[in-house]
Amino acid sequence: MAGLSGKQKLATILNHDEVFSGFNSEDKLMLLKHARLQRFLPAQHMLRQDQLLEDVYVLLDGALHIGWLRPNGELKVNDLVQNYSAFNLVALLQNKPLTYDYFAVGRVEVALIPAPLFFSLMYAQPKAMQQLIQLLSQRMYHLFEHNRYLQTANLNQRMARHLLKLSRLYGRRHEKGIVLQIKLSQQDFSELFNVSRQTLNKHVQYLVQEKIISWGYSQIQILDLPRLEKLSQI
């Protein structure tokens, strides 16, 4: 959505995203009219754990690191989000504070839709409510499946699956494979998978020696996508 204004990006999301597909045209115009835009700088702490929000946050541009801040101020990364949609609906529906810290990856732009307006329109539209319930049910199912995968997959499989996810989000086709347009260190990966850097390095070297990936100076390149997909499977 490069070249579009924030409101234009939001209008595109309102018209195409599943979260808003049950709303009629008048409701979408109302949401668009009352939305506020907010921008964040790279690595900026956007939202804090235990923060209670009063708006629906819709990601318009950029990506988010989700995790927990440690006592020393470092972020324990749990996930990466770059789907342009609402990302705090569960907390709003439960009227509870956030359980994660959110940091901007690069420059980030979000739209803030007042939650009372969003829910009043949703409750007046049975189709919108049904769509949201179905969508959240699907997300919960995928979450259970993801947790099951994490409990049964070995480290090579989990690394392969995460690299595939990054390739979808940040991959750029290259003559020798797919280059990930995001800088990631082995320390970042070791924290993500809760292993020592030495342990992670052994698994990285396996992928490198097998010519599945190359990894240098925080730049990752996927050389053999079919083998990486096969490796990710249980």
Automatic annotation (TrEMBL):
Which UniProt keywords are given for this protein, alphabetically ordered?
A: DNA-binding, Transcription, Transcription regulation
MF terms from GO for this chain are: DNA binding; DNA-binding transcription factor activity
Q: What is this protein called?
A: Transcriptional regulator
Q: What are the HTH crp-type domain coordinates in residue numbering? A: 153-226
What InterPro entries is this protein classified in? cNMP-bd_dom, cNMP-bd_dom_sf, Env_Response_Regulators, HTH_CRP, RmlC-like_jellyroll, WH-like_DNA-bd_sf, WH_DNA-bd_sf
PANTHER family the UniProt entry points to? CRP FAMILY TRANSCRIPTIONAL REGULATORY PROTEIN (PTHR24567), HTH-TYPE TRANSCRIPTIONAL REGULATOR ARCR (PTHR24567:SF74)
Q: Which GO terms describe its cellular component?
A: cytosol
Name the residues that span the membrane: none
| Record domain Cyclic nucleotide-binding: where | 19-139
Q: Which Pfam families match?
A: cNMP_binding (PF00027), HTH_Crp_2 (PF13545)
The record's annotation in CDD domains points to: CAP_ED (cd00038)
What PROSITE patterns has UniProt attached to this entry? Answer: CNMP_BINDING_3, HTH_CRP_2
**Superkingdom of this protein's organism:** Bacteria
